[in-house]
Specification:
The complex is a heterotrimer. Chain A is mostly helical. Helix content of chain A is 74%, strand content 1%. Chain A has one domain. Chain A is built from 22 helices and two strands. In chain A, strands 1-2 form a two-stranded antiparallel ribbon. Chain A is globular, with a radius of gyration of 22 Å. In chain B, strand 10 and strand 11 form a beta hairpin. Chain B is of the alpha/beta class. In chain B, 41% of the residues lie in helices and 20% in strands. By secondary structure, chain C is mostly helical. Chain C is built from six helices and no strands. Chains A and C meet through helix 8, strand 2, helix 10, helix 18 and helix 19 of A and helix 1, helix 2, helix 4, helix 5 and helix 6 of C.
Chain lengths: 501, 332, 166
């Protein structure tokens, strides 16, 4: 049965019209992903309206294409100018930008896009085979688990980005969490830090904060006289070397994709966390963790395979429960419903072919993305050849548009500017921006789940220790804090003299 | 110099007034003050598509979640009244905005076209000990403040549903709020909360598949979802609940008053076409929404009753401090 | 400014910010404890996380403060002196001047020009001023790049993606 449906899906997608639509929408997604501030959520939302009157299958193909494209495109701007195109690719910038500075931007983009493609493909396998089983995992997560997972994510990100001083990373994370507290709180709708401003009551939007934190410092730094107009060599893709790297790191890539799928399944935790988690696992399992953050290709591969695998992972709860795993997933669900599909428990009996169609479209979209991304990259790497003093003001204009288009509201542009100044100050003192951003992403989840859990259990923390997944998270969190603060080193040191005696 | 300036201004004025007659000349933004995939969002998207065609332009749907829907609504309220920014909102949250203290304007300050109605439904997990609405109500009565209800937040459709259950039981429940209908549903499935009184459309398929048990709907009649799957009205077990019914989310499109009658007529016409559009009707049927189209005048009369009912549910539940009478809301 | 010195300044600023968060947090607690909310239990109050975060922020900042004083000759007095000296060097530093003026341009663009002018005119003026200020080339070349960029942006966003710009 399954093969039959797959064959049908293959026939649908290979009609000339659908191939055309797939290429166009994947390309549009890639461009939106590359441009800082135009997020995957927006790309899908725009397309949902445009494709309303398309035939159903064609519309689905274009939506999948734009989703895959947007998530994968973000890595190019992250690698080339250190401004992630989407929040999901913040982890890619960590090793990608140093690689570009070493004159290996082409290679960096090649492995990033290849890892994205691979990540999506691995996630498709899970969508097709294990949807019912993995749905059960999503239902294991209650408020306590969500709370601990978000704390875990911020701690990891802080420790990873702070270059040896986890303190600064965690301070940045706490600041991000505090920013997310602005607005009407999600449990009781009580205003916090809003100063009576309606725009602030709606909470600070994520994308303007991201553009400000990452983009602004890079833009302003280019104004310096001393910022020599260093023009980096235009690097080749070095396809053979790239494939070599992929094969060498294949195990890590698949592992990252698996982590991405798991993260994608958990509702509310999306692509942003997937990349960080798989990056962390790769780094802590590596024999040479010091090389991460300095242009290690494995860093790029883990981050990109991880965040792209969330696409497939995120589709699993959509298909089985009609509950989206991330913001772009929510728009995708709306689009499915608009086209008359009813994701949920009846999907397999009413339209059994749907899941196979989506799987096949994902496969095609990831290959289309891979080819198109490399084409587009041929153009984008040229940015390195142009004087930064010309590029950066233009990028600022794009940032303004990106911030505005989130809600069609000038207030968001002003927020972008304010966070830009803040980001400049923080980055001048080597505070990393990524944990700040993740704090803003995960803040509402941290706050509402913690208080919800406490409310359900009448203010008692005790129930947290009765749940196996919670205990797992707690152990890892305690272990990480101790290792980052040098507790273990202390232990080792105190042991040595003992042995000496 | 002054004369030239005046002339220029006049010329500009003429230009803009001729532009008005040609409205709409560019795409219209339809703001949905919630995330994608919810009842309001889906209705808005279907309507946007159906209304865009007679108007000859595209209507872009923009999701601006935050502050329980009031942020997006106030954004539209504060933007220039040129007909290019329209709001789609659920009437429960919208009509209670003034008594929640978000704004001084009421629904009477808006042009409103009521489109659809989606009833509430009380569900419990498949292996829950409660098999009928009586079981649940008795449990609430015997353990006041202990039974947990998962909703999409303060002022959401689910919150009103829970308040009706509370009024029937005469005892309080424990309100647990989630970031939306989806998370509230997963929490019910995971067993984190005892019941969920959200909108029927959100878990229609789960009821048919038998993954959750539907105890009662807050519509006035029983609802047949599929052959053999009937959700009884709460009125059957508790006739005294009738005065709160029908309870559920009413979705409408609106814009602040002040637009020229000319443009309003164009919207009237597009709305008339849209609510008879086959794609729109198919879509609403698949989601179990009823299409209850009302023109501008009828919408205002309809909302007088509806808003009063919603406001006094909140007032009696002591969830607000502003007396609905201050805004002329009438007790049902 | 030395990185230790920056840490020193930031740790003080962040501690002050943390104290402000605590102050606001108690205000939120008061607000929520009164009608109509009546949330008097601290752990379920909306002020719970802000207060916890404020406390953590102060703790981490104090840690950073002491860390910045550690090491050879990093006394409190020296850090204060270093900071005062750094302040004096600001007006003479061409990099900081360029960055400040550039940011000011961007601020004017965001806060004033966008509010009063159509998007494309504001952007034309902004990019032109910016390129002149950064001396990227001859005036005709700047004008060309400027027009090309704005044209491309309008084409991409308004024609292809069908969005409306500010």
């Amino acid at each position: 049965m399954a093969l039959e449906y797959l064959a049908q899906a293959f026939l649908i997608v290979t009609t000339p019209l659908n191939i055309m639509v797939l290429l166009l929408s994947t390309g549009a997604g890639l461009i939106m992903g590359v441009l800082p501030g135009l997020s995957a959520t927006m790309a899908i939302a725009l397309l949902t309206g445009l494709t309303f009157n398309f035939p159903h299958q064609t519309a689905l193909i274009s939506l999948i294409g734009v989703y895959v494209g947007a998530i994968s495109g973000g890595c190019q701007s992250a690698i080339l100018i250190n401004i992630p195109g989407t929040p999901a690719s913040a982890a890619t910038a960590l090793d990608g930008f140093p690689m570009a500075n070493q004159g290996k931007a082409g290679l960096g983009i090649f492995i990033a896009e290849t890892a994205s493609c691979l990540g999506t493909l691995v996630s498709v396998i899970f969508v097709l085979t294990l949807t019912p089983l993995l749905t059960a995992l999503a239902l294991k997560f209650t408020s306590w688990e969500f709370f601990l997972l978000s704390i875990f994510g911020i701690l990891i990100c802080g420790a990873l980005t702070a270059r040896g001083n986890a303190l600064k990373g965690w301070i940045a994370g706490v600041l991000g969490l505090l920013v997310s507290q602005i607005g009407l709180d999600t449990v009781d709708t009580i205003p916090r830090f809003t100063y009576g401003n309606v725009n602030l009551m709606a909470t600070v939007q994520l994308i303007p904060v991201m553009i400000g934190l990452f983009g602004f410092p890079e833009i302003v730094r280019a104004f310096k006289d001393s910022a020599d107009d260093n023009i980096l060599p235009l690097s080749k893709f070095e396809i053979f070397k790239g494939f070599g790297l992929m094969i060498k790191n294949a195990v890590a890539a698949v592992r990252s994709a698996l982590i991405g799928v798991m993260v994608g399944i958990i509702p509310g935790v999306g692509e942003d966390v997937g990349g960080w988690l798989s990056y962390w696992v790769s780094k802590s399992r590596s024999k040479d963790p010091e090389s991460f953050g300095k242009g290690n290709p494995l860093g790029i591969i883990s981050a990109e395979a991880g965040n792209n695998a969330c696409i497939g992972g995120g589709l699993i709860p959509i298909m089985s429960l009609a509950v989206p795993g991330s913001a772009p997933g929510a728009v995708l669900l709306a689009a499915f419903l608009m086209h008359g599909y009813r994701p949920g428990p009846l999907l397999m009996t009413e339209t059994p072919e749907f899941i196979y169609n989506i799987g096949m479209y994902l496969i095609f979209a990831s290959f289309a993305m891979w080819i198109l991304a490399l084409f587009i990259a041929k153009g984008t790497v040229r940015i390195l050849r142009i004087n930064k003093k010309i590029i950066m003001p233009i990028i600022f204009t794009l940032c303004v548009i990106g911030a505005y288009l989130i809600n069609y509201n000038m207030f968001d542009v002003k927020i972008m500017f304010v966070f830009g100044i803040l980001g400049l100050a923080l980055s001048s003192a080597n505070f990393p921006a990524a944990p700040f951003l993740l704090g803003v992403v995960l803040g509402p989840m941290t706050d509402s789940n913690l208080r919800r859990a406490l409310r359900i259990h009448d203010g008692s923390f005790a129930t947290m220790f009765e749940r196996p997944i919670c205990i797992f998270f707690l152990t890892v969190i305690v272990f990480m804090i101790l290792s980052q603060t040098g507790f273990f080193k202390l232990f080792k040191k105190s042991k040595k003299p003992l042995e000496g005696n | 110099m002054k004369k030239i300036l005046a002339l220029l201004l006049a010329a500009g004025f003429c230009l803009s007034s001729t532009a008005q007659e040609n409205w709409p000349t560019k795409s219209i933004n339809l703001t949905v003050p919630y995330g994608a995939g919810g009842t309001t969002d889906l209705t808005a998207r279907a309507l946007a598509n159906a209304m865009g065609r007679p108007l000859g332009i595209t209507i872009n749907v923009i999701n601006t979640p935050g502050a329980g829907g009031s942020a997006g609504s106030l954004n539209v309220q504060n933007s220039p009244v040129d007909g290019y920014s329209i709001l789609a909102n659920g009437m429960l949250a919208f009509t209670t905005m003034p008594i929640n203290g978000y704004t001084d304007k009421t629904f009477r300050d808006w042009e409103i076209w009521v489109a659809t109605y989606a009833p509430n439904c009380v569900i419990v997990k498949q292996d829950s000990p409660y098999n009928t609405i009586q079981d649940l109500i008795n449990a609430i009565r015997s353990k006041p403040g202990q039974i947990t209800a998962g909703t999409a937040g303060i002022g959401s459709g689910g919150h009103f549903g829970a308040e009706v259950v509370k009024a029937v039981a005469g005892a309080d429940y424990k309100h647990i709020t989630y970031a939306g209908g989806g998370p509230a549903l997963t929490a019910t499935l995971a067993g984190e909360v005892d019941f969920s009184p959200q909108l029927l459309a959100e878990y229609k398929d789960l009821i048919i598949a038998g993954k959750v048990k539907a105890l009662a709907t807050l519509a006035e009649e029983d609802i047949t979802l599929a052959p053999g799957v009937v959700v009884p009205s709460i009125k059957k077990a508790y006739p005294e609940a009738a005065k709160f019914l029908p309870m559920g989310e009413v979705t409408a499109i609106l814009l602040p008053k002040g637009l020229s009658e000319d443009k309003l007529k164009k919207i009237d016409a597009a709305f008339e076409v849209a609510v008879k559009d086959q794609a729109f009707l198919d879509f609403t049927a698949s989601r179990s929404f009823s299409v209850i189209p009302r023109n501008r005048a009828d919408s205002q009369t309809f909302l007088e009753g509806f808003a009063g009912r919603a406001a006094y549910i909140l007032w009696d539940a002591k969830a607000i401090t502003i007396d609905p009478a201050k805004f002329g809301f009438k007790r049902p | 400014m030395q990185s230790k010195n920056k840490d020193f300044v930031f740790s003080i600023a962040l501690t002050v910010f943390g104290i402000y968060v605590l102050y606001e947090g108690f205000g939120i607690y008061q607000y929520a404890a009164n009608p109509p909310f009546n949330i008097k239990i601290f752990v379920i109050s909306p002020a719970f996380l802000p207060i916890i975060l404020g406390t953590i922020l102060i703790l981490l900042s104090v840690l950073m403060f002491f860390e910045s004083l550690r090491g050879e000759g990093n006394s409190l007095k020296k850090q204060r002196k270093d900071f005062a000296e750094w302040i004096k060097t600001i007006p003479g530093n061409p990099d900081i001047r360029k960055m400040t003026i550039g940011s000011a341009f961007m601020g004017i663009y965001v806060f004033f020009m966008m509010a009063n002018l159509p998007f494309w005119i504001a952007t034309l003026i902004f990019l032109f001023c910016m390129f002149i200020f950064l001396r990227v080339g001859k005036v005709w070349k700047i004008a060309l790049i400027d027009l090309g960029t704005v044209g491309a942006i309008v084409l991409l966003f308004q024609v292809i993606f069908q969005t409306s710009l500010p």
